[in-house]
Amino acid sequence: MKSVLIVDDEAFVRAGLKESIDWPKFGYDHIYEADNGLKGLQEYKRLRTDLIMTDIRMPIMDGIDFCTEILKLNRNAKIIVISSFMDFEYVRQAFKLGVMDYLLKHQMTEQQLAPILLRLEEEEEQERDGSFSKLGKQAYLRHWLAGTLHVGANSHDPHGSHASPNTGFRPYSFSAEDHLQMIAIQIDDYKWIKKNSSLWANPAEREARAATVAEEVLASYQSDITEWHEGSLFAIISFGSRLSRSEAYANAAQITQKLQRELQRELGIAVSGLYYPLPVTAAELPECYCRINAELGRFHRRGYIGPYETERRQKSDGNSQRVDLGEWKNKLLQGQLAWLMNELDILWLHKGPGMNESEIRMCFREIINTFYNEFQVGSLLASSEGLMDLSVEHFTTFEGLYEWSVLCVEHLRRLSAGAVKKASSKIRSFQLYIEAHLHEDLSLDAMAEKMHFNKIYLSELFKQAVGMTYTQYVTEARMAHARRLLTQSALSIQEISEQVGFNDAAYFIKTFRKYTGQSPLKFRKQSAEA
């Protein structure tokens, strides 16, 4: 079993790291701590722990000096730097020393730490002479591409900005003159798979296997890769300076397809790939990364492979797609599941590829959430049915989103079928109430509020159960009672109109004539003569 030393001047941070990480799961059974770098150094000399996690800014001895002293004692020491913010200069110095990774405290979870801990087990030794371990270099490259790390002062200088003035180290292995191609591989619907697939019970282990496959595919090329992060990996490939643009483009497509094929064959996972359509220089890599990384979070076909620009244009051409949510709600409330399934087919499988990201998100959230809220407000569903455990952010493919939306509709249909059967028994109680309170305000709003029922659902339920709208039912009940009073009492027309809920006698007379074809007085007279 192994040990870890946590060095941080904030007690709550040390306690949080000890309690929030399941250390024994990763083979660490002894957790030690120190509140500054000097004490941490003394503890390391005494304990020689297998892993060190240290803050950057601390009193007495800061994290950089601490790491320096530790690495003097043991060049193979495994160190992860943690900080409350991204301090570029400190990060540069830490990676230069040879630390394994740099993590922000407020973002750090066991899920983030797990891939590092697993890969640390595979690291036999760290490189010497001030360079990086493989894991450290991959993490460094991702930070640099993402813009969370700067190595030099001028970010536009292809030489000075990418290399340390002291060591000449760059976050990549190729020259500034090379034609470079960027490729991104993403595990389709990564969040959904990680949450639901038994194959991904240990995500860090699966990602480590995926990284090994990617490295094997790229072994014959001059290339650098980032570590897997949130289901995606970036590769930078150098084709030299003699390759034409068309040749570089064709090679990027072939390599992306090979990566996809091998990952699917070895791990049984669906992956998509994007590659930048033109060769770029080292100085242009961060911009390419930002563009492709943003595109990866948008929806595409499962297993999609293509250039970045084509995918982006596809997204921007479909700004006119709209969904009539009112019609969808009515069809669901009426139980017309076949219609809904057909519309889902049209929406996700045909309209979807032409819709932009905001429209897709609107469709999913509005349709599914509105359905759910309608039923819940109508007292048909319990407050938690597990329907919203997932959201649109869990999906990156049209197929995945389509499959989940179908499950949502089927789930709602099953819930509503039982709920409607139960709720229909309320209709009779509503009818009895109406017949006993015809003189009161029986508007749909008033009844829904009195009975704590959703008015839209109440209207639909009446129409299904009785064959007419709620308003029609109330009016006919009032007219039937008015006919009884006209024939069985000596009440005046004004009194009868009030008895059946009409404060305006003239409006009562108009309504009565509409339903019977004659005035109340004529109806009474004919009834008396019959």
From TrEMBL:
Residues 428-526 form the HTH araC/xylS-type domain. The keyword DNA-binding applies. Gene3D superfamilies: 3.40.50.2300, Homeodomain-like. CDD domains: REC_YesN-like. The modification 4-aspartylphosphate is found at D55. Signal peptide: none annotated. This is Helix-turn-helix domain-containing protein. It comes from Cohnella soli.
